[in-house]
Design brief:
Blueprint (H helix, E strand, L loop, with lengths): L6 E5 L11 E5 H8 L5 H29 L5 H22 L3 H15 L7 H6 L4 H9 L1
Antiparallel strand pairs: 1-2
Helix pairs in contact: 1-3, 2-3
């Protein structure tokens, strides 16, 4: 089984000759680990969670401007906001020891349970077979 580990290309700051590669490949989780502000665990979790919320708001604002104000969709800004979201999500993953594969597989398992046919349907979206409260609602309904 392959693990989903993202890599990014960064400037090679240690290049000392023209023969050295101008870019080096770095694991994204380690890149975030180096950049995320070190503080107490609680403060770092708070920083990351609020970062997710703030960046999600900025992404929503970019889409809102396109849909409701008729502005052209700023594709570069959408990429920037998605990247910022990904940064803060990775920070949470790092702090809790959640691997990319674990995150993706857990989400896929949940959605496969919710959508038994592995195809979206409004009915299954409302039923939410992956949630306990859906079963409780059915018993009381």
């Amino acid at each position: 089984m392959s693990l989903a580990i993202g890599f990014v290309n960064l400037p090679n700051l240690e290049a000392s000759s023209p023969n050295d590669p101008p870019l080096i490949q770095v694991r994204y989780d380690r890149f975030v680990l180096q950049l995320f502000k070190v503080d107490t665990f609680a403060q770092m979790m708070n920083h990351a969670a609020l970062g997710v919320c703030g960046e999600a708001g900025e992404l929503a604002d970019a889409i809102k401007k396109h849909i409701h104000y008729g502005k052209p969709l700023d594709h570069d800004n959408v990429i920037e906001e998605l990247g910022d979201l990904r940064f803060y999500i990775q920070a949470v993953q790092n702090m809790l020891g959640i691997t990319e594969q674990e995150l993706l597989q857990h989400n896929a398992n949940k959605l496969a349970k919710r959508y038994g046919s592995l195809t979206y349907s409004d009915k299954e979206a409302v039923e939410r077979k992956d949630k306990e409260w859906g079963k409780i609602g059915e018993a009381n309904g």
